Amino acid sequence: MKHREGIEKERENLRTVFKKMFSITEDAASNEEIRDRILTGGKITGTNMVVMICAILIASVGLNTNSVAVIIGAMLISPLMGSILAISYGTVSNDAYLMKRHSVGFAVQILISVATATIYFLLSPIKEPTEQLLARTNPNFFDVMIALAGGIAGIVGQTRQDKANNIIPGVAIATALMPPLCTCGYAIANGNLRMLLGAFYLFIINAYFIYIASDLMLMLLRTPRVKAMSVSEWKRLRKKMYRNTLLVLLPIIAIAIGWNV
């Protein structure tokens, strides 16, 4: 009897240790701080816009000259991920105004990014596609996995008490939101529709699965809602997520089936 009780106690201790090891609420910042930090990172005025245009130009030069180091530098300073996290926060907090505002802002960022890259590549004397440009035109399931893991790591980094961590820069490099948009600019400047579709699809995969992963983590963190969500509203939201995820994955599934045939 005592032996059995000892085993149960050991198991309970192990469960407690593992629960503490993988707890995302253990060192989380306050809800107010999380909200302020995420929404500040999603702003599209002032500093963020200037930094974004600079990042686009740097990434375009790196892709055009096949320089990995320059491309990484551009991804480190890109503010695009901040907008995705802000949209995610609006979704989970059930704040339609926030979600709409940051979605419009994100669309503006995309348009300005592609326009800036297009102008650069129209003026650039180097017209041949480099290895780094071509690498952004063939998305696959590995990109989905990277975006999901990046989204989880990104939102965890943004919700910690300690703001001085290196998670966000690492996520920015891993998920590579900026280079696909620059590749879209190259494709438009050189009239390459196939490259445009491939690069933009890669961008959609990265952005969407970062968003989905952020949604899941913010739900686990019990992000406060501005208004209660009814059971029917929650079901509709869940159905939309399932449907949109399937739609985003369809081209990759079709490509994978084509490879196996």
Question: Features of this protein?
Answer:
single chain; globular; mainly alpha; 261 residues
What does this structure look like?
The chain is mainly α. It has one domain: Glycerol uptake facilitator protein (Up-down Bundle). Helix content is 77%, strand content 0%. The chain contains twelve helices and no strands. It has helices at 2-21, 31-41, 47-64, 68-77, 80-92, 96-123, 131-134, 141-158, 167-175, 178-189, 193-220, 231-260. Helix 6 (96-123) packs across helix 10. The longest helix has 30 residues, at 231-260. The radius of gyration is 21 Å and the shape is globular. It starts with a helix and ends with a helix. The model has no long low-confidence stretch (mean pLDDT 85).
What's the helix and strand layout?
Layout: H1 2-21, H2 31-41, H3 47-64, H4 68-77, H5 80-92, H6 96-123, H7 131-134, H8 141-158, H9 167-175, H10 178-189, H11 193-220, H12 231-260
Summarize the structure.
With about 260 residues, this protein is an all-alpha fold. It contains twelve helices and no strands. The protein has a single domain (about 30-260), classed as Glycerol uptake facilitator protein.
